[in-house]
Amino acid sequence: MNEKGKHALVFGASGLIGWAIIDQLLSNYPSPGTFAKVTALVNRPLDIQDSFWPLEGNRPLNVQGSPEQPELQLVSGINLAGGTVQSVTELLQTKVKGIEHVTHVFYFVYKYEEKPEDEVRVVCGMLEHTVGALNRLSPNLEFFVFPTGTKAYGIHVPGGVFEAPYKESMGPLPDDYQKTLNYPFMRAVLEEASAGKQWTWCDIRPDAVIGFVPNGSAFNIAAHWANYLSLYRLIEGAEAQIPFPGSSACYHALYNEASADIIAKLAIWTSMHPAEAGGGQIFNIADQAKPESMKDRWPRLAAYFGLQGVGPVEGKALKPSEYINRYQGEAGKLGVKSSPVFQGEFLDSYGYYLDFDRQLSLEKVRQAGFAEEMDPNASWFRAFGRLKEARMIVG
């Protein structure tokens, strides 16, 4: 590797957005030669041949890089929970070759805790220890990107807090809700850590994230519904009607989801434009500015699997996670690997509690200069197709 080239360090590379960032970097976004080296950091073991990243035939040989592709370094065993600045420093120094040449950090790490106060402490502690270690180890650091989400606009508050479209200037939430959010505390960590340094940072903010991971995810609505829809087709047959798993209000509420791909592109774009995107700015992101509803989306998702998607119906029916648990064995008989979604029961609530308009304004990110859009239906289909390719759903 040319030590003067840009070196991207991606924390949480096997998560929904982290996986997509590696995918985009290895696909030479935004242009060939932008990055000389990409380091993917994961906690759970991940075999490069099972990663489904674009590595010319998926062969380990290609991790060495080529004129057409950055060098890839995959490092497992990066557990940031419960550490200190010193322990994380030692961990990264030992495991990450070229840590001293890192120029861009994409931090997409999250750890769920049942109690919000515990989650704030754990998540913010991991971030504080990580940036403390990077300040010691990576003197060439230029940009740091991390995500927040639409909880900042109070989507978890019954009935919502603000009137859509949501803008980055909105906030804060009422005190009882604000103190349970990681986001303001994470921003404070980065403000302090970057003070007087040459690097800067930004915060990107999507609503629901649509994407693929090769080894399971805690909160992956695309995988959850892909499991449900593919099993429903297998059990109930082609052209069966499948009601939207939620309420009528949720079915008609406006929103604009973000594919992991568009989030990854924005993350990389912001890191290349520190003057326009740095200084701790917040940027909403979605596949498109135009809001739609599940009335628009659900029939298209069902049709992908040969089903007829219809609106919600009254009466008791199995929730998606219940249906999956009942019939997953049928998929196993066909040689399908599971696509584990560790919070499937929580995702069952997706169609019930988001019963108000929550679309994001993309005015600020457009003014900054990022203008890319994607067809949201195609984003869902791309995630489904990757799950099929990995034999994680019936197809």
Q: In brief, what are we looking at here?
A:
With about 400 residues, the chain is α/β, with parallel strands linked by helices. Helices cover about 40% and strands about 10% of the residues.
Q: What does this entry look like structurally?
A:
The two termini are 40 Å apart. The longest helix has 22 residues, at 116-137. 45% of the residues are buried. By secondary structure, this protein is α/β, with parallel strands linked by helices. The chain has a 7-stranded parallel β-sheet with strand order 3-2-1-4-5-6-10, sandwiched between helices. A two-stranded parallel ribbon has the order 7-9. The protein has a two-stranded parallel ribbon with strand order 8-11. The chain contains 15 helices and 11 strands.
